[in-house]
Amino acid sequence: MSGREVVLGRVRRALADVPRGESPQDVPVARDYETTHSPDDPVATLAENLADYRAVVHHTDAAGLPELIGRLLAARGARTVVAPAGLPPEWLSAADGVSRVADTAELTPHDLDATDSVVTGCAVAIAETGTIVLDGGPDQGRRRITLVPDHHVCVVRVPEQVVDSVPEALRRLVPERPQTWISGPSATSDIELDRVEGVHGPRTLEVVLVRE
């Protein structure tokens, strides 16, 4: 007996008591399980987990956001920054000497690779996993603008954009929208577990937590 026959035989035995015409949609599934561990301070938990993933976390208020973004870009030596069409213009108002690159369909991977930084908002942030989720909203732009440039500044409005857990985040997201889930800067490890950053995304992720 082949391995395939063994596996299929086990599947048939497991389905022996299932009516032939029944589909998975016909059987209600109880989903009353716990969806969060309810951290005492979700924003503090998010900041801690982001830092654990080697993201750089900053705190400010709405009034101080433009100056902070300007300082982050200046410290990076950025001369160009990609700006999604729906990014609030005041966010980059203090970025003196930095040229804005519009997020358009004409941008090529080469254009993005030559751009120093990108600034976006986010759709939601998950405290328990230290994850930022982008869904292509007006202040986030196309997926590729956050995958090619080497430096990403992501703004999270707290506490309204912060949820405790992944199940809570999924309730806020539309499945049909393009999603990018970010837990720290892009990184991978080779067979000897040597960590390499910036392989398939930005080498540096800076997350700004803004209390409005």
TrEMBL record:
InterPro entries: FTHF_cligase-like_sf (IPR024185), LUD_dom (IPR003741), NagB/RpiA_transferase-like (IPR037171). It holds the Pfam family LUD_dom. Residues 29-40 have a biased composition (Basic and acidic residues). SUPFAM superfamilies: NagB/RpiA/CoA transferase-like. Residues 110-210 form the LUD domain. Residues 19-41 are annotated as: Disordered. It comes from the Bacteria. This is Lactate utilization protein C. It comes from Streptomyces litchfieldiae.
